[in-house]
Amino acid sequence: MDKLLVVKIGGNIIDDAEKLASFLHEFALLPYRKILVHGGGKLATDLAQKTGIPQQMVEGRRITDAETLKVVTMVYAGAINKNIVAQLQSKGVGALGLTGADGNAVRAHKRINANLDYGFVGDVDDVNTSLFKVLLQNNLTPVVAPITHDGLGQLLNTNADTVAQEIAKALSAHFLVSLVYSFEKEGVMLDVNDAGSVISSLNADYYDTLKENGSIFAGMIPKLDNAFAAVSSGVDKVIIGNAMHLSSLIEGTKGTTISHARQQL
Amino acid sequence: MDKLLVVKIGGNIIDDAEKLASFLHEFALLPYRKILVHGGGKLATDLAQKTGIPQQMVEGRRITDAETLKVVTMVYAGAINKNIVAQLQSKGVGALGLTGADGNAVRAHKRINANLDYGFVGDVDDVNTSLFKVLLQNNLTPVVAPITHDGLGQLLNTNADTVAQEIAKALSAHFLVSLVYSFEKEGVMLDVNDAGSVISSLNADYYDTLKENGSIFAGMIPKLDNAFAAVSSGVDKVIIGNAMHLSSLIEGTKGTTISHARQQL
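ok -> structure tokens follow
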């Protein structure tokens, strides 16, 4: 099977024009078929504030009401997505921006929760692998914004990590997929204050041990649970690390690589 | 050659949710390969006002400074494009949204004018016919926002009528193209106050006569000049008329049809 990279780039990098340009430069040079999934960053919050849309937070989570959905659609699918696409095009990459609605790329349903209405938030049901295959086979590089749709005309705000994971899982039937979560941290660290404590490879047994003895930063656990779910569902490996060292992450010389097969301890 | 429709939908329809839904319903039913190009509407002006971006008008034309470009990118490529795509998907159309940057669909250069700096406004250089062919052959329906790029990382604001015309002209080498300018008027009228005075078909000779005797509403002239330029460049016909009667326009029972071949007078 051909190798495919699914790279998620985090919001903190997107907010920094220089870091983003540097990341896109490295991304452009990667000699593989690839898909980029981007998060949101601060721009959406800024625009909501400027236009006087109150941000509802319930139990620490943002509620996506109709006005907020409009703002995130404009910022994610408009400003951020098209800026990234134009930059990648200038670097010779056949970038093509997508939301989940475009070509029915990622279909979702509005989250159902008995205790809390999250508003227009989508949980992914289906990834259109035929669409991604056609684009990749024609040397196009999908750049995916974290907006999905329900197939009934409704756009939905969806977590970018989840979008990347679902695309990676679905395409594992057709490609040897590496899923890269790239952000401002070096990887999974034994000591959150020591960049030298990065765990270079992690399997499920070792992860369980680290969780039990409290060695893993709590904020990392949802990301890692997602990573292990991905490798259990056919993704070849998941790599977590600093977006400023993208090629080293893929070579395995930096960051944390999570795989099903590799043994540790 | 296969028939292809390139349909431009005007801003006044986009501003009216009910009219837009009705238009998209008819568009979805058209049994041809098709491309939709949409304009902007009032949303961009509204967002610029809300966020305190002054709109510079020089000699009656809007100047696209960097902040205004960001606004139109968010509104055209984000809010409007994704709303249309999601609605078409719900009607069974394989809609896929594009700006000119996506897949290098429409490349342009920043307008050069010795007397006036229009800002980030693009004049079209090239349409990527290979991209449109791949999408159309895979039953995808491109939905194009009037934003282009220069291939060097810069997005550019571009007139939607021009984008539609350039796409129609370029694809005439591969398809039998009808270019439809659909908006809130009935077509080219001899008397602007009489909807019954629509000219059903117009050729270059008749157009010259009407211009000479002042029978054509001045605001229509740039659109018609564009239309005749398109039929001179290989477009089979250009149809101008009311977006609420799309199928009748295409059947030729409503609106004005402009063709190279047809004789009149």
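Chain B touches chain A at residues 47, 50-52, 70, 73-79, 81-83, 85-87, 89-90, 94-99, 101-104, 131, 134, 138, 140, 147, 149, 151-155 (CB under 8 Å).
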